[in-house]
């Protein structure tokens, strides 16, 4: 679907416009327009070249998903590759923007709530001449801002899970906790692969002299960059926390194994001399004088019991049970 809205020279918003009405943009009745390719068909996607005559490399980037977030400068427009995040799966959805002096073209293969919200915000915005004079960059800023705002709930949800995981760490098995930690690290990695390139792209925009009208919107784009910087720092902090939890669980598991091995070692050591005594008197030799003793059996039991008690006390004195 291709949907179009236009801002007239008297600063009114008109929607449901066709491409034919924008055919001659130099003498158009619109100050600027936003053309949104929402899940376009193959025929609709061809309009990027047939109608707008965008560079073939930019069109290729639109059709070949998934590109890294970036900004390319062309003679009459700027081309941005952005990433939206699916909050359920944390998978990325590519959003492409062409920003010209009199138009904004957005292209995406999936319907996105963020773009719908930006679209509705422009359609329902009260009559405001000052706002519309900012041109397509105002709409582009709104789209990017909506995309970045969607990152925060995803990061906050992981932080809540980390806090909960830390609280119940002593009540669950280490194996289950480790699986949850590695799952969180994998999700953080997905977010990092989206947010860090977006941050780098915004840094490039802020420090570029190529983008039309960028100086006028520096404050707005700087605000988005600050959000991305905060998100990237949160992700790095969460990754460090998961690393600490992982190391703690590994240490806890090793400590438990050491305790189990110590207990088994003590039991084995105590029974070794008892097994030796039982083995000696279990041999079937004829000339074993102790076998004829009246109280030999009881004497051996007492010796074995005394030896066991002495060894346990000696181990305790040596600190084996601490």
From TrEMBL:
<keyword id="KW-0472">Membrane</keyword>
<dbReference type="InterPro" id="IPR045863">
    <property type="entry name" value="CorA_TM1_TM2"/>
</dbReference>
<protein>
    <recommendedName>
        <fullName>Magnesium transport protein CorA</fullName>
    </recommendedName>
</protein>
<comment type="function">
    <text>Mediates influx of magnesium ions.</text>
</comment>
<feature type="transmembrane region" description="Helical">
    <location>
        <begin position="295"/>
        <end position="315"/>
    </location>
</feature>
<keyword id="KW-0812">Transmembrane</keyword>
<keyword id="KW-0406">Ion transport</keyword>
<keyword id="KW-0813">Transport</keyword>
<dbReference type="Pfam" id="PF01544">
    <property type="entry name" value="CorA"/>
</dbReference>
<dbReference type="InterPro" id="IPR045861">
    <property type="entry name" value="CorA_cytoplasmic_dom"/>
</dbReference>
<dbReference type="InterPro" id="IPR002523">
    <property type="entry name" value="MgTranspt_CorA/ZnTranspt_ZntB"/>
</dbReference>
<feature type="transmembrane region" description="Helical">
    <location>
        <begin position="264"/>
        <end position="283"/>
    </location>
</feature>
<dbReference type="InterPro" id="IPR004488">
    <property type="entry name" value="Mg/Co-transport_prot_CorA"/>
</dbReference>
<comment type="similarity">
    <text>Belongs to the CorA metal ion transporter (MIT) (TC 1.A.35) family.</text>
</comment>
<keyword id="KW-1003">Cell membrane</keyword>
<keyword id="KW-1133">Transmembrane helix</keyword>
<keyword id="KW-0460">Magnesium</keyword>
């Amino acid at each position: 679907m291709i949907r179009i809205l236009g801002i007239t020279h008297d600063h009114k918003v008109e929607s449901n416009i066709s491409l034919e009405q924008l055919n001659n943009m130099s003498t158009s009745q619109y100050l600027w327009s936003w053309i949104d390719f929402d899940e376009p068909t193959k025929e609709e996607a061809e309009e990027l070249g047939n109608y707008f005559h965008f560079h073939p490399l930019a069109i290729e980037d639109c059709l070949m998903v998934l590109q890294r977030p970036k900004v390319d400068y062309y003679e009459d427009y700027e081309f941005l590759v952005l990433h939206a995040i699916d909050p359920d799966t944390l998978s990325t959805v590519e959003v492409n923007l062409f920003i010209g002096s009199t138009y904004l073209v957005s292209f995406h293969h999936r319907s996105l709530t963020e773009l719908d919200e930006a679209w509705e915000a422009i359609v329902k915005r009260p009559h405001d001449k000052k706002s519309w004079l900012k041109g397509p960059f105002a709409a582009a800023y709104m789209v990017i801002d909506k995309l970045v705002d969607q990152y925060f709930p995803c990061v906050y949800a992981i932080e809540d899970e980390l806090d909960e995981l830390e609280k119940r760490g002593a009540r669950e098995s280490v194996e289950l906790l480790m699986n949850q930690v590695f799952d969180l690290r994998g999700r953080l990695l997905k977010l990092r692969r989206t947010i860090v390139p977006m941050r780098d792209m915004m840094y490039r925009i802020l420090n570029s002299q190529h983008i039309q009208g960028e100086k006028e919107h520096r404050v707005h784009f700087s605000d988005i960059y600050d959000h991305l910087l905060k998100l990237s720092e949160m992700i790095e902090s969460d990754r460090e926390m998961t690393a600490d939890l992982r190391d703690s669980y590994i240490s806890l598991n090793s400590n438990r194994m050491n305790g189990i091995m110590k207990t088994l070692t003590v039991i084995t050591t105590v029974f070794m001399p008892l097994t030796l005594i039982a083995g000696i008197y279990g041999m079937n030799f004829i000339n074993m004088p102790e076998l004829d003793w009246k109280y030999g059996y009881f004497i051996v039991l007492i010796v074995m019991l005394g030896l066991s008690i002495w060894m346990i006390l000696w181990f305790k004195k040596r600190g084996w049970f601490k």
